Amino acid sequence: MTKTASQLPHPVTGQLFESPVPPGAGWPGDPAKSASTIAWTERQVEQMAGLAGSVAELDAVVSVCRACPRLVKWRETVATEGKRASFADQPYWGRPGPGFGDPEPEILVIGLAPAANGTNRTGRMFTGDRSGDWLYAALHRAGYASQPTSTHAGDGQSLTGVRIVAAVRCAPPGNKPDPAERHTCGLWLDRDLALAAPGLRSMLALGAIAWDATLASARRLGWAVQRPRPRFTHGAETAMVTTTDRSIRLVGSYHVSQQNTFTGRLTETMLDEVLAGL
Ligand code: SF4
Known about the structure:
The protein is α/β, with parallel strands linked by helices.
């Protein structure tokens, strides 16, 4: 292949990629194909989520979604003109972060949204930033992750029994998705919950936005959810019952953001204790 000026080598495989990465171009772990159907509207997200018959199909359509114009613009601007200087020699994923991990999980971890220079660069949930360093190290200590770090797609990391998704799948400016974006992307989360439900034991919400998004998804799916709405805090727990009478626990943890881990609001011990109880 002839290298173009805008192509850069993947840090693990060395293959050349444009930023954002075209679907099906060979990026490690890319669930999409070049012909994967794109959702342009909330209505299309709802329809396509409902039609996804497997986690693989869901991840493929999520990873090419363009239903939130503000977030599409932001993720692609960061991936082209807005790269962090230390990553300027790398291609940026620049697409929504698909779910990562075991396609038949016992535990679903729900984060807030991709980081602009983390998942938005690497294409894998919580990968390539300090938040991910914390989360994968804890998952490794708990026996769910094959290695303690997750630096790049293609680095050999794998999860057993755990799948990681997010309330919002595109990097938002200031880490603040607006209510309409949260609602639209919640329709993808609905499908993640529905597909995981048959084998699911627990869900771990990282932060209040993930907590609220998970409860909202469960309600839309017709699951029995505690009323009034249980409040988020670190260690909060509530049970919900699916339409097939499965009881699933929702547990809250402070988010593994640098803001929380640097200040000691969330310690390794606190995170380990939450994971041990799932
Ligand atoms: S935030 Fe979610 S719904 Fe919006 S464009 Fe990204 S993947 Fe699609």
